Amino acid sequence: NAKIIDGKATAAAIRAELKAEVEAHVQSSGGPPPGLAVVLVGDRRDSATYVRMKKKACDEIGVSSFGFDFPEDVTQDTLLACVGELNSRPDVHGILVQLPLPKHIDEQSVLQAITPSKDVDGLHPANVAALCTGRTRAPGQAASWQLKDLDFHVPCTPQGCIELLDRYGVEISGKRAVVLGRSNIVGIPVSMLLMHRDATVTMTHSKTVDIASVVREADIVVCAAGRAEMVKADWIKPGAAVIDVGINSVDDATTKKGYRLVGDVDFKAAKEVAAKITPVPGGVGPMTIAMLLRNTVNGATRAAAAAAVAAAGGGSAGSGLT
Ligand code: NAD
Predict the structure, then answer these.
(1) Which CATH number does the domain 153-285 belong to among 3.40.50.720, 3.40.50.620, 3.40.1280.10, 3.40.50.2020?
(2) Whether complex ipTM tops 0.95
(3) Which protein residue has the closest C-alpha to ligand 1 atom 3?
């Protein structure tokens, strides 16, 4: 019977740590608190809910949040102008454009307009390159680097997956890891993180043949396919750690709403085989927002450090990502 990896409790513990960090930062820098700008386009109910949750989490730990809401028919130029203004605001350390954007907007153009040091979603090509080229491990740095010490932004959900493995004592180095899904937001970055932490990583996707036998080899399984309960108990190697990123809604007439949320893993059966497993909801989900807060706080502390170096007459500090 697996140990349940409690993402809700872990995220709460991280928020408490960050709250203390924010207080210390405000005291020592004498500047504004860390600030997150959230850009929301249109009236998708799920996006509005996510934005509300993000703002609430900011309030809890003393991070300022600034909302910028635009109608569905906003022009790309208007959005780019908004991002440009936020790039230069000293009280904004993180800029998040809630995805998806309407079809008439080129998502990549908007994401690329964000200054990489404020790109708390970690989706700007400069941050993606830093992740892919192994900037996760500076020369001479131990393999057991801490995510919180990186000098660029790692996407939040993948960061949350690794944090859960770390905090639940799952050894990554040398292990076989299998990732389901190859999206830019989850599958690819989580694979990169696992690889840089010295796991042997196999990426699987919708065209993988006999995926069950690939998953059976995994000491660590990260599921981000968005397919309700596709991973069965007999796919799981006994003793494996299972991180379920999937959020899928399935009809359920017995619930008030008429549906319920399930992950990509058949949780009830898989927890009899795995050593450690995340539930859905209450696993990776809450971690995503906690990592967004961490990226924002990191953005503020890095900006303050760079400003201190500049004030002392030094050259540029930090990552060089501006
Ligand atoms: P996506 O649709 O962009 O990508 C899905 C990936 O899964 C694709 O690469 C595809 O090749 C692969 N895939 C599809 N069917 C498959 C199959 N049968 N077998 C193996 N691979 C298959 O989705 P995404 O944005 O990466 O999200 C994945 C899931 O994670 C979704 O359920 C999403 O809701 C959830 N999600 C959760 C969080 C969170 O905070 N917990 C954050 C982001 C995404």
Answers:
(1) 3.40.50.720
(2) yes
(3) 183
